[in-house]
Design goal:
binds iron/sulfur cluster, 9 strands, 5 helices, alpha+beta, two-stranded antiparallel ribbon, 7-stranded antiparallel sheet
């Protein structure tokens, strides 16, 4: 399976993630926050592997796709800030009709807890509005958790802050 279509398009789709086995099983998604590596390129990078405090991410050789042991992942979000490709996300679908997406953010202005923000999908299109519930920094990247309608959990991958 090549990444040519993804390169030409500039973003990966939900179906492509699923086909590559990069999504956690549904029962794990329902248990609590869990990381997803939206990283379809075989590149020599292991930042997520060496950064994860739970040793939940592995690669047998440095250029293969990262594999996450979703049972070891605590959903801490460290890998979200560490990934130089902005390809790591944490999804929490354990809380009823709302979902919580933890995503990297490298734009200004900096979002603050309580802010209402515009939700963007992988393509960069606006798909709704959400609320920021947590912000921390890791290696100068803002790691932002945003509350979104549950049906957008697998769509929202960026935010836009209006100020
Ligand atoms: S969210 Fe935390 S525990 Fe899970 S893979 Fe990322 S760094 Fe590891
Ligand atoms: S750190 Fe990011 S870009 Fe590097 S292998 Fe991990 S997910 Fe891919």
């Amino acid at each position: 399976m090549t990444a040519d279509n993804i390169r030409k398009r500039g973003y990966i789709t939900y179906e492509e993630l699923k086909a590559r086995g990069l999504l956690p099983p549904e029962e794990r998604m329902l248990k609590g926050p869990v990381a997803i590596a939206e990283c379809p390129e075989e590149i020599p990078c292991d930042v997520c592997v060496v950064t994860c405090p739970s040793r939940a991410i592995s690669k047998k050789v440095i250029y293969e796709l990262p594999r996450i042991d979703w049972n070891k992942c605590t959903g801490c979000g460290i890998c979200v800030g560490a990934c130089p490709g902005l390809a790591m996300f944490v999804i929490d679908m354990s809380k009823g009709d709302r979902a919580y997406i933890t995503l990297p953010h490298e734009f200004l202005p900096v979002p603050r807890e309580g802010d209402e923000v515009i939700l963007l999908d992988r393509k960069g299109d606006r798909v709704g509005r959400g609320r920021v519930v947590r912000v921390f920094t890791y290696r100068r990247t803002y790691v932002v958790t945003v509350e979104v309608p549950r049906d957008l959990a697998m769509e929202v991958r960026a935010i836009w802050v209006e100020k």
